Each structure stands twice: as C-alpha cells, then as structure tokens.
Amino acid sequence: MKKILHIPNYYYPHIGGIEQTAGDCVSALAGEDVEQCVFCFNHEKGTVTDEVNGVPVTRVGCFAKIASQSLSAHYGKELKKMMEEFDPDVVVFHHPNPFGVHYLMKCIGKTRKLVVYYHLDITKQKILRLFFRGQTSRLLDRADMIVATSMNYIEDSPYLSRRRDKCVAVPSCINEDRLRVSEETERLAEEYRRENAGKKVCFAFGRHVPYKGLTYLVRAARSLPDDYVVYIGGKGPLTDKLKREAHNDKKVVFLGRLSDEELKARFMTCDVFCFPSITKNEAFGLGLAEAMYFGKPAATFTIKGSGVNYVCPNGETGIESPNRDVDAYAAALKRLCEDDELRARMGRAAHERVAENFTYAGYVPVMRKEMTVLCGGAAHEDMS
C-alpha cells in the first residue's frame, strides 16, 4: 500500500484555487491500495484533526499571517510527528509555502518521493522573493517531480525552465458536479434576468487583491455606456478601496461573497465574464474556466508566462488586451457585449475548450499516470 501525504497551505472547506486543486489531487489518487493524509494550516490558533471525504486532515494552528504566509509555533513539531507516525512513501507539497518548506526539508529524509505542485512564482513580495530564492531552488532540486498547471508557466518561470526534465504540465480542472444547475439556480437566474432587462451585463468575481486587477475593470467601466452594468463578486483587502474608486459610477455594483447557487446564476445571466488579472500570480484561472464552461466569452489581459492566456485563447474564446490597458479593455467589453454573433460564437468555443481540456474526468487519468511513473509502476491498478 502506498502512503501519500499532501501538504497544501489550507484545505477544504477553505475554498481557493490552490485548495481546490489540492482536493482534486487527493480525490484523483484515491484507491484501495493508497492511504492518504492531508497536513495544512488552521485559520484558528488550535491544532485539530478532522476528515474530509474519509481522508484525515491535520490542521495546525497559526498565530499570524505575514505577506500571505501563515505562521505557526507548532508546525515543525507536528510535521515531524506526521512523518514519523504516518511514514509516507510520497509527499505532495503545494508551493508557495516558504514556512512549510523550511520544516519539510528538515524531516522528509532521503528516500521518500517528493512531488512539488508548483502553483506560482513569488512575484509581488520582492524582499521575500530574494530571501526565499535559495530555499525554493533547494526544494525543487530535491523534488522527484514538479507539477505545473501549464507549459506556459514551465517555460517562463526562472525556477521551472531550468528544471524542465522533471516538470510535467497537468492543467487544473473545474468541478462539474459543483457547477450543476439546480432549481434554485434557475430561480435566481430568472430574477437576475428581470432585474437587468435591457442591460449589457458584465460580471467578475474573485478575491479583491492586487493581482486580480479589479481596479482596471473599475476604471474601464467609466467609459462604458449607461445601459451597461458591471457586477463584481467577492471580497478582500482591496474591497473598500475599489468601492471608493467606483464611488460615482452607478454602473459598478459590488455583490460581496456569493453562494454556489448565486455564482452559477451570475455566470448564466452575464453577457461577458471579466477576468482582469495582471500578474503571474494568476497561474491558471479556475474561475475563468468555470465561466467559460457556462458558455461565456471572457475579457482578459495579456500575462506573459501565465496559464490564463492558454486557458482562454485570444480571438477564439474571448478578447485579450495589453496588460493594464484600460481603454483597450473597455473596448473589448463593448465589442463582446454589442456583437451578438461574435459573443455567441466565442461562448460556444469557450464551453467546448473547457469541456475537452479542463474537467475532472480528464484530470484524473493524467494525474494518476504521472504518479504511477514516479512510483516506478508500483502504484495501484486504479492509478495505472
């Protein structure tokens, strides 16, 4: 029996792109001949153990968060204990997590296989990037396999491009079950259609943080006609600043956090999905893929080395504007909203691209195959 230890920053029910990918990875590798555990941070101070879909999850309490990095007084001790008691054959470590790397390298040993699930380069925190550059290199040198979400990222990352021989591209996937339309979704969608009758509807959602580029969407909205409405879902550190920036523009409406049913209804009833991320911190774009699954063309920015422009090819499933170019972005929104034939054609292509390339059904065999190769063919039959 193979034992696999997964180490993300956080885990379900905490929801984010990395957390969803970590959950998908655990589900994909499940089988009778595999035992799995998850080790992560807890948002609270105490350390707790629970289960998610039958998989034990140890959540280590943390006392602070600095530059998006959780800090814990007991992380090292608890990780060492996990290594000794669970004794994994394979460790799947989700990067970035500089605090976790420090303790992982101390206790992983020389014989365990290490898979680094590389989600993104540290780009914003320049001091941290310099401080942890050597640490990241040591982690990747120790890795037996590095998983990234696109070849774009592998080729552009200064860390991954030098280690292409051990890198594999495994695109992230949407959860089709979560996106199923229920009666409540239909009810909400009908309500939103009545509310926005006669309007051009643009929709964006995500954490309100700098790399999401929502400030450029707010600025682009100023030049849109009055029969447009721009809905922005989600919350974050920049929410108040964004509201101040949009203060006199009645076209911009902030929705706050959305339930799954509300999110699906917004996807169904918008004309265009806005995905204005501006840096490689947006390594893939699961929210983008979800909107495309609902047949919505997207307005994006060019992000060199990111998977965003791989997920949504320019001119096929949406329109890509030069990075941070507010006027070009506004023009893209207008073109997509006002050209019915173009919007319908790109919407169909968007759904087809996601259905063919970014679903869980496609993710599972790829992830299992790569893990089987890593383990020298010793993985269980379901993973072969």
Walkthrough of the structure:
With 384 residues, the chain is α/β, with parallel strands linked by helices. The chain folds into 2 domains: 2-173 and 359-383, Glycogen Phosphorylase B (Rossmann fold), CATH 3.40.50.2000; 183-357, Rossmann fold. The chain is 40% helix and 21% strand. The protein has 14 helices and 16 strands. An 8-stranded mixed beta sheet has the order 3-4-2-1-7-8-9-10, with helices on both faces. A 6-stranded parallel beta sheet has the order 13-12-11-14-15-16, with helices on both faces. Strands 5-6 form a two-stranded antiparallel sheet. The protein is globular. The two termini are 14 Å apart. The model is unreliable at 378-384 (pLDDT under 50).
Mean pLDDT: 92
Strand order of the largest sheet: 3-4-2-1-7-8-9-10
What does the radius of gyration come to? 21 Å
The top-level CATH class of the largest domain is Alpha Beta
CATH superfamily of the largest domain: Glycogen Phosphorylase B
Low-confidence stretches: 378-384
The DSSP helix count reads 14
Order of helices and strands: EHEEEEEHEHEHEHEHEHEHEHEHEHEHHH
Percent strand equals: 15-25%
Q: Could you give a short account of the major beta sheet?
A: 8 strands, mixed
State the CATH topology of the largest domain. Rossmann fold
Helix content percent band: 25-40%
Total beta strands = 16
Distance between the termini: 14 Å
**Mass-distribution shape:** globular
